[in-house]
Write a sequence for this structure.
């Protein structure tokens, strides 16, 4: 029944050509356009099941979802850096190509090491390190030594993303996630000269210099919170602008699905797709009824085990609202 309902909406959408927003990259590949169009067809009607996997064990948690539910998630995701290395870059590319051929949606992110450091990038010291105001200004100033070092970092990842473009793999690309929080070196940099500027710089480098046209740009913040020393601030102060973002998302842990935060993100999106770009505890049925516009959820790795019962995972996977891998082969 879910497949029939979805097919009806897909046909209706195609007939009316009702997609409100095209990709921000005017040279986006046909695969990107198809995937983004697809997400608009399910907007407010369905939510895609997604699962993050550590890059050194790229199927472990997706396999766990299948073991719990008898279904695989529609979205497969991983991270270009985990445990301080990009040595798994080629393995990530190979797995992403394989997953795309199998009909999965691919989402990739990057815990980028602090540009003042050299690899391997340690978690606390580098990824969760800090930059001084002077270092941030140098980083975001073209031609400086720190800016050149940053370019070397992002160009290295671009080479992997280029392989995916050559293989016709569209990517939900989610850099500088949780930027409204205080825990990463790119975090809590407000205003036009803050993370918004660095995001725009990456967008320009990838889109106009590297000609990476296979990326759907996903701006994934963190649910606002006021925990002392662990704050995450209002979305709007960190947003780089509609010219640089296709999809707006948020990361929510500990069932912190605040309706006011959902409404704030909807207001900021102005009709664009929104998503649960990371979750710990899965949203309840009541949350999904009150917040119907989430396009997908992506459970973060082992949180599938530690913060969700097998029964709850199964309930959301078999829900009429949820679409799993077997129901989105239209993307192939």
């Amino acid at each position: 029944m879910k497949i029939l309902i979805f097919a009806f909406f897909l046909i209706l959408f195609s007939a009316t050509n009702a997609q409100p927003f095209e990709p921000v990259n005017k040279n986006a590949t046909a695969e990107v356009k198809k995937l983004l169009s697809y997400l608009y067809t399910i907007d407010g009607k369905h939510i895609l099941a997604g699962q993050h996997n550590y890059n050194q064990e790229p199927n472990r948690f997706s396999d766990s979802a299948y073991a719990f539910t008898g279904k695989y998630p529609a979205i497969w995701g991983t991270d270009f850096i985990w445990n301080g290395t990009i040595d798994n870059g080629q393995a990530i590319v190979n797995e992403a190509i394989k997953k795309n051929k199998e009909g999965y949606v691919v989402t990739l992110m990057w815990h980028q090491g602090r540009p003042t450091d050299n690899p391997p990038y340690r978690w606390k010291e580098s990824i969760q390190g800090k930059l001084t105001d002077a270092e941030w200004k140098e980083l975001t100033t073209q031609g400086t030594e720190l800016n050149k070092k940053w370019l070397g970092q992002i160009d290295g990842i671009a080479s992997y993303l280029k392989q995916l473009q050559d293989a016709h793999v569209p990517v939900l690309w989610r850099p500088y996630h949780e930027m409204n929080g205080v825990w990463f070196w790119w975090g809590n940099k407000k205003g036009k000269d803050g993370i918004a500027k660095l995001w725009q710089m990456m967008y320009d480098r990838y889109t106009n210099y590297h000609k990476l046209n296979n990326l759907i740009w996903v701006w994934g913040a963190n649910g606002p919170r006021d925990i002392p020393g662990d704050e995450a601030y209002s979305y709007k102060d960190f947003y780089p602008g509609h010219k640089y973002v296709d999809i707006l998302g948020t990361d929510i842990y500990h069932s912190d699905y605040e309706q006011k935060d959902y409404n704030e993100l909807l207001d900021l999106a102005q009709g664009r797709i929104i998503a649960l770009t990371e979750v710990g505890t899965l949203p309840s049925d009541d949350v999904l009824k009150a917040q119907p516009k989430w396009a997908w959820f992506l459970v973060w790795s082992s949180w599938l085990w530690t913060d969700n019962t097998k029964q709850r995972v199964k309930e959301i996977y078999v829900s009429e609202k949820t679409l799993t891998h077997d129901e989105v082969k239209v993307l192939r």
Q: What stands out?
A: Residues 145-166 form the longest helix (22 residues). Residues 2-331 form a domain with the TIM Barrel fold (CATH 3.20.20.80).
